[in-house]
Amino acid sequence: MINRRNLLAGSAGLIAAGALGGPFAPGRAFAQSAAAPTFTPEAGASLRLLRWVPFVPAEEEAFLANTKKFTDATGVAVRIDKESWEDVRPKAAVAANVGSGPDMVMSWFDDPQQYPDKLVDVTDLGTSIGAANGGWYPGLEAYAKRDDKFIALPLCAIGNAVVYRDSHVKAAGFSEFPKDTAGFLDLCKAMQAKGTPAGFPHGKAVGDGNNYAHWLLWSHGGQMVDESGRVVLNSSETLAAVKYAQELYKTFIPGTESWQDVNNNRAFIAGQVSLTANGVSVYYAAKKDPALAEMAADMRSTNFPVGPVGQPIELHQTSTISIFRHTKFPEAAKAYLQFLYQPDNMNAWIQGASAYCCQPLRAFENNPVWTSNPIHAAYAKASSTLRPNGYAGPLGAASAGTMADYVLVDMFAEAVTGQSTPEDAIANAERRANRYYRV
């Protein structure tokens, strides 16, 4: 958070810049390059950003350092409000619909598609930043655009990968991690028998729950909708995915149907599970604790196994950054976003995130963080491999609503816990999805 002391420091920096006649002198516009649009912060501007709680402290430190640099250069104070992953979505929706609250939000997946008319058109920024930095990755760009206009800027993909204890996998009789879903189920059964089970979230976890559910569906060839947006969930492929999920669930520790995004981290660190899926944050949580040195040294990461569909298909939680139309300072907000995407600042943030946040632009894929530790390798390509959650239909209010309502997550949870038969769970999900998709 930028407090009064930081604001005064920023004002001092601004005065110094003015004395030097530099590019950030008072009254001058801020621009990323000569070819980029220029934005002059409004007189007396201050900003408030709602963001998700970080799982990697160094990521937040780098983000706050960039924010302070912006304040020092412009005199515009930026207050950072943090909320849990689950709470960002409803708080952002309330702010959008009420027309007050934070000026900007770092949100999830296609959340901006729920209220596009409440967001500032940032096509000028999206186009210029993309052109200057090798282009946006298509999956991330899709989340940020509506009707060929940028309603948000793609911020990052938070890579999701399988993390496991290498010695426990070997003790279960596997010299290599299985590459297909059949072998993966065999491994989970063997690890359960050894007392070192797996665990994946079937609860309403914004990131991990959605990632796991979509992998289950897509790896077996199922889809929520077709290209036209017609619900096609009730299929033999979906039924195969649900039945596979039931078998995997039998190997999990109890309680995964209530897991949110913090629970699989905690279960792994506590030694309750030896295999789960998570961002790289779980590795660093173990590494920073001297008592967990053995665990950290034993940890490995890999991408999800390939299912009957025959190719790697994964969902990674994706974050975008938007400006609400109710802001009193849209020029200052655009200047702030433009500043964050300057190469030096973006690279510093990506490196600070230690492979937790995967770059939104191709120019940053050679950041040294991706080769600095072997455990980063499974996360390095998240931005290039992710498939948007609305696949295979268009992103919009329907895909955003279906995701926000946890339709797919609940379908698997109902079936694996025995609340419904697989067929009934699919029919329930189909019925709920059709409330959003009206073709």
From TrEMBL:
Q: What is this protein called?
A: Multiple sugar transport system substrate-binding protein
Annotated localization: Periplasm
Q: Which UniProt keywords apply?
A: Periplasm, Signal, Sugar transport, Transport
> Which family would the database say this protein is a member of?
Belongs to the bacterial solute-binding protein 1 family.
GO cellular component assignments: periplasmic space
Q: Which organism is it from?
A: Aureimonas pseudogalii
Q: What is the lineage of its organism?
A: Bacteria, Pseudomonadati, Pseudomonadota, Alphaproteobacteria, Hyphomicrobiales
